[in-house]
Amino acid sequence: MSLCKDCIQGVRHEGEPSGTLETIDGVACYVATPTVDYAKDKVILFLPDAFGIELINAKLLADDFAKNGFKVVAIDYFNGGGLPADQVLNDKKFDLYAWLAAHGAEVTRPPLDKVIAALKEEGVTKFGATGYCFGGRYIFDLAFDNVIQCAVASHPSLLKLPDDLETYFSKSTAPLLINTCENDRLFGAEAQAKADEIFGDGKFAPGYRREYFPGCTHGFAVRGDLSDPLVKAGKEGSFLASVEFFLEHL
Q1: Catalytic: which of 141, 184, 216, 249?
Q2: CA separation for the pair 215, 207 (Å, rounded)
Q3: Helices (H), the chain
Q4: Active-site residue, from 133, 150, 181, 216
Q5: Residue 218 annotated to the active site
Q6: Cα–Cα distances in angstroms (integers) from residue 163 to residues 34, 139, 168, 186, 244, in the given order
Q7: How far apart are CA 91 and CA 8, in angstroms?
Q8: What pLDDT digit, counting tens, does each position of 88-98 carry?
Q9: From the centroid of its chain, how far is CA 193?
Q10: Which has the closest alpha carbon to 186: 12, 57, 50, 90?
Q11: Which pTM does this prediction carry?
């Protein structure tokens, strides 16, 4: 299980976030709510990359899901310790592994569980989850525990392959979408082919879909350079596939 230099590469996107910062059972969250009527018993958990919920890209993505009729809760499971984009984004010398050692599951899973429990108390019964890079690890963990009812992982990291794919198949009932790309050290061609082998051709009854975006690199779905036509197509295509998957399965 690992991260790579591409986990902290990318571009900050432009826009004006429309959601709100809220505290849910002591955990900071960015909440994006549809402006139209929506199913109050459903929430999409937005599980960010190492930059956390403070990166504007994450907020804008959460807002976009809300525009498609889903309430979204983006969770600061780093307890304020997400990477500061103005200091770390594209810093090839940053010691990512030292940061990761201080943000293991013993630190980051409890806030996630607290928010989910609080949302259940508010009447939420169906959870979708979309995870990017670091967040892709928790897509699998939550699916293993059948906490979520629909799962989307975009360029996931920190997976043990192929073990986690096999565990997902045997334990989870959550339909799974994986957004993949051409250049990904952490979920590359071999892992992609293995996922198709395990889940594809109707073998995974709950539902499986994998999207592939050429010319894109790990991180494209949240930190992609939109001035590159292929990356722009990948970022927008992965979002569209995610929305379609949630509409079908959640």
Answers
A1: 184
A2: 27
A3: 56-67, 85-88, 96-101, 105-121, 134-144, 163-171, 189-199, 220-223, 229-249
A4: 133
A5: yes
A6: 37, 15, 9, 14, 28
A7: 7
A8: 666 677 888 89
A9: 21
A10: 50
A11: 0.94
Each residue's pLDDT tens digit, 159-197 = 999 999 999 999 999 999 999 999 999 999 999 999 999
Cβ neighbours of residue 86 closer than 8 Å, sequence gap 6 or more? none
* 185 vs 222: CA distance, rounded Å: 17
Beta bridge partners of 176: 151, 208
Classified as helix, coil or strand, 159 is coil
Q: How far apart are CA 29 and CA 53, in angstroms?
A: 7
Residue with tokens 């799974």: 176
- Residue 191's region, left for phi above 0, alpha for psi from -120 to 50, else beta, is alpha
**What pLDDT shows up at residue 2?**
55
Residues of the chain with pLDDT under 70: 1-13, 87-91
**Catalytic (active site) residue 249:** no
Select which of 13, 103, 155, 218 is catalytic: 218
What's the Cα-to-Cα distance from 58 to each of 29, 53, 63, 64, 235, rounded to whole Å? 12, 6, 9, 10, 12
8 Å CB contact between 186 and 3: yes
> Residue 89, exposed/middle/buried by CB under 10 A (0-12, 13-18, 19+)?
middle
DSSP letter at 103 equals S
